[in-house]
């Protein structure tokens, strides 16, 4: 189903507006309040653009429907400032469907986008992600994870450490646990059939973080 560049630009502008409008009134649960910058619309919108870039990159090698992937990436976190985090996959899928149906997009296309977005954050069992999930769902999950690793994951956690007044040792532990640990746990979980390009991208970004931390540890050996 041919989408024009203007369509994608319109989707992106709509998502950006929904995030910034939602953030004005959204209240996070208390245990989320130490998660700046992750809870700002600036961060979440930038993350959205990164995920879009990664799905386009992965689709070239792993296949899948490019337009379903692009649209799903743009809308996948649109509800971040409209609902509780635990249900944001389903709510984002619903917000995307409402917007796309209003614009007269083909119902099969809209259903595929809905499923892809819902799958990126749902409690479906591993058997679904190992065998039944469409390749677009797997690619979106890979792209979403990839952005939390690599240079962006490190910079986000360094900013977060500053915000929470963490010093070297605590920062080191946070990078180990939330960046390296997160990627390693995902890759070894056995709960999803990674695509070849997706696994490689995640491993490359993990390797970058390990190299970065290795150099920091050499430089600050007394504390790291
Ligand atoms: Fe998400
Ligand atoms: Fe995301």
Task: Detail the topology: elements first, then pairings.
Elements (H helix, E strand, L loop, with lengths): L4 H21 L15 H22 L3 H10 L12 H15 L4 H13 L6 H7 L2 H14 L1 H14 L4 H21 L7 H24 L5
Helix pairs in contact: 1-2, 1-3, 2-3, 2-7, 3-5, 3-7, 4-5, 5-7, 7-10, 8-9, 8-10, 9-10
The structure holds fe (ii) ion (2 copies).
Which structural traits does this protein have?
224 residues, mainly alpha, Hypothetical protein af1432, 0% strand, globular, binds fe (ii) ion
Question: Which structural category do the helix and sheet elements fall into?
Answer: mainly alpha
Strand content: under 5%
In the CATH hierarchy, the third-tier topology is known as Hypothetical protein af1432
CATH superfamily: Hypothetical protein af1432
Give every kind of bound small molecule, once each.
fe (ii) ion
For the record, give the distance between the C-alpha atoms at the N and C termini, rounded to a whole number: 52 Å
Q: What is the CA-based Rg, rounded?
A: 18 Å
Shape: globular
CATH class: Mainly Alpha
Based on the coordinates given, report the CATH architecture.
Answer: Orthogonal Bundle
Helicity, as a percent range: over 70%
Which ranges are low-confidence, i.e. pLDDT below 50, for 5 or more consecutive residues?
Answer: none
Number of domains: 1
Largest sheet: none
Query: What is the count of helical runs?
Result: 10
- H/E element string? HHHHHHHHHH
Can you give the mean pLDDT?
A: 92
Total beta strands: 0
